[in-house]
Write a structure and sequence with these properties.
Layout: H1 2-14, H2 31-76, H3 80-87, H4 94-101, H5 109-116, H6 119-131, H7 133-143, H8 147-158, E1 167-168, H9 169-179, H10 184-201, E2 209-210, H11 223-229, H12 245-258, E3 268-273, E4 290-291, H13 292-295, E5 300-302, E6 311-319, E7 322-328, H14 330-338, H15 342-362
Antiparallel strand pairs: 1-2, 3-5, 3-7, 4-6, 6-7
Helix pairs in contact: 1-2, 2-3, 5-15, 6-8, 6-15, 7-12, 8-12, 8-15, 9-10, 10-11, 14-15
């Protein structure tokens, strides 16, 4: 059956139609030889199918790149030959497609937390805080973001700047812009911002490295965020998110503040639920809309004290033996603007709490 399916696909792709069937041999060959012949034919058919698919993908990619270059020339005044030279050196990376199709944040919370809230990451967070005390304090004064939150974001993103990513950003963005249809529009926009960033900063676009998704530097800013929220926090006349911890600290703080962080306010507290009505107020990616008092109508109550007038939403986390619930406030939602995953936001919160506690006990 498998052989028949491969044969039909092969004929459909090549346009070939069998016109005759050879007569059976007078003496049938042993079964093992027939199987070997079938395997060889199947292998050839698979090769042909793969070649045609690869050819079609390459044609679509080439057409997409040409259209993109035309848009960039028209919209931003780029020189066509220069863009053709840059994008002509971009390389498609199959591994990037595989990586983005299986993000770490898709893991259940009980598997996600042990990756990011670990003794090693907590200790490194304390060291990062001690090394960058002045910049973290200044960021808190200027933007209202606690030192431990800034440290935890950087800790989750790149282990405090030690794991910034090894992919060429140009390869990441072009692969996703032209070979990942589900989010092609988003990544074309990021490729556009990357080229603009490179022009404005006179950066070497061929050698900047980062994540498989195109995020750059210690805080893993996408190009659009880099251009909009990155700051020169050490006042040396340039923004360097890959080499300057100070610029990374100030940029993370500016990002969170710009997305509505409320200084001195709660982030999240444990909650308990009664019945099934709580599903009506589960977090859906929007800012909280109900007060703590109002949310009680759906059988939800905080386990810790939380002002009844504060706006909140309910977040659930998958544990090995059931669910864990938290009431999340505006600042939790702000963290999800950095990464849309609630697992990510909770890992930042819990890592931050552990860093603060560990540092306090060491002083």
């Amino acid at each position: 059956m498998r052989f028949l399916i491969y044969a039909l696909v092969f004929f459909a792709l090549t346009g070939c139609v069998a016109t005759s069937v050879p007569p059976p041999a007078a003496e049938p060959q042993p079964e093992i030889e027939g199987e070997k012949i079938e395997e060889r034919v199947e292998g050839k058919i698979e090769e042909k199918i793969e070649e045609k698919i690869e050819g079609r993908v390459e044609e679509e990619r080439k057409e997409g790149v040409e259209n993109f270059i035309g848009e960039m020339v028209k919209r931003h005044g780029f020189v066509q030959a220069e863009l053709e030279n840059i994008l002509g050196q971009a390389q498609y990376q199959e591994g990037i497609i595989k990586a983005i199709s299986q993000p770490a944040t898709a893991r259940p919370w009980y598997a996600y937390r042990p990756v990011f809230v670990t003794p090693k990451r907590i200790a490194a967070g304390v060291a990062f805080w001690n090394t960058n005390t002045a910049d973290l304090e200044r960021a808190r004064r200027n933007f209202g973001i606690p030192e431990e939150i800034i440290a935890a974001v950087i800790g989750v993103e790149t282990f405090y700047g030690t794991q910034n990513g090894k992919h060429r950003i140009l390869d990441s963005l072009t692969t996703l812009a032209f070979n990942y249809p589900r989010r092609a529009a988003f990544f074309r926009g990021e490729l556009e911002q990357y080229l603009l960033m490179g022009r404005n900063q006179q950066a070497d676009l061929l050698n900047i490295r980062g994540s498989y998704a195109g995020a750059i530097g210690i805080p893993q800013f996408m190009p659009s965020s880099y251009r909009r929220y990155a700051v020169d926090f050490n006042n040396d006349g340039k923004i360097d998110l890959s080499g300057s911890a100070a610029d990374a600290i100030g940029s993370v703080a500016n990002y969170l503040k710009s997305h509505g962080w409320e200084a001195g306010q709660l982030i999240a507290v444990p909650a308990m639920v009664n019945g099934e009505n709580y599903r009506e107020v589960l977090y859906s990616g929007h800012p909280p809309r109900h007060t703590v008092t109002e949310i009680g109508q759906w059988g939800v109550a905080p386990r810790w004290h939380a002002p009844g007038s504060r706006l909140a939403t309910l977040v659930e986390f998958e544990m090995k033996n059931g669910k864990e619930f938290w009431l999340a406030f505006n600042n939790f939602h702000v963290i999800t603007r950095y990464n849309r995953s609630v697992n990510y936001a909770m890992s930042v919160l819990q890592l931050a709490e552990e860093i603060r506690a560990a540092r306090a006990s060491s002083l």
